[in-house]
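Handout, page 2. Input:
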Amino acid sequence: MAKYSQQERRNDGVEVEAWSRGIMVGLYRVARLLSLISFRLDREELQLRLPKSGSKNRILETVWRILVVLTYASVWPTLSAHLITTQPQSYADLFASLQSTSVSILAVISFIIQAKGENKFRTVLNRYLALYRRICTATRVNQLFPMKFIVYFLLKLLLTIGGCVHELPPLLQVELFADVGRTVAVIVGIYMWLGTLFVLDACFMGFLISGILYEHMASHILLMLQRMQIIEFPDKGVRMSNYQRMRLLCDYADELDEYAAIYSEMYEVTIAFRRMLQWQILFYVYYNFISICLMLYQCILRYLNEDEKALVSLAMATIKFFNLILLIMCADYAVRESQKPNRLPLDIVCTDMDQRWDKSVETFLSQQQTQRLEIKVLGFFQLNNEFILLILSAIISYLFILIQFGITGGFEASDEVRKQFNISSH
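Output:
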């Protein structure tokens, strides 16, 4: 019965790994379709290769990206047109328009940085792929991705689709397709907008994969420590000489040295990923933050006007907030899993039995203290669960400011107040 259950778990692991790899290949193909990357996947060596130099496809892709950037800046404000009025009638409307313009500028900057750093992106992805193969070899497993990966991916996909359902209709209005030029601009804008969403979701996927790799390594080290108990507390039925015990302990020390090298590589790859996409992460946080504030402001105005669409605005703001929470939680998940070895009894198991093991443990723990993972974005803020509370308080404060500007009236009311103030002062 136990063998049957173990075989069933192994089959489930193979199926989950196959689905996970299928998801990763699908994301690669979508990135190629959206012209975000131009390199190809070598499945035999599991590496990303550059296209041949001087290729006509490469020139066409470069020209296409230039055209996309030129049209993107003019089309992006249409996405937030349903959140603000065409002609600002109050300081709140003007404030919302300025925020929408800032989002447009950051979106274009984010795309230019991503397109310019494509080679760096390929290098980091290749390091992730090489790290995946190295971990599978070191831990002697073929199934590394758990069911958690598929669940989180599907949850993020549902949230992304939910946001698209609300943001896509403004780009499909009939008046936007009045002539050929505007039609092409809108189509390119939608194309680039989908590419922007993909890059933003890639930030989430990178932190999720890093967390899964860290979790897998920590679990394997814990299993290694459990297997080492036979050295310190040998069973009565198994007799081991001192030489066998010392040899086995040295083998485990060699494994720990290899794990230390893997942890160092995971730290460097995660930091390189964060450094490469920190502008995109900043845009991700800022874009969702502004969208949440404007949607809640719109929800309150609709509620005061007894508009039934108030609940729609509230639902969309909730989706944006969960999008932001998911990114922050995945970053915090990677950080927490990277610190797990510090809580394992590495310096207690088999201590003072052999200097080789003690030296490996000391080196590994010192490395963990030196390479302490922190996911900071441009030095402005750190992505952890405490940041969620900071975002929530900022949303409430920002919303009160918008409401305060909104209920004081429009520009004419402000001018009237200014005139009354001047008369009373004289």
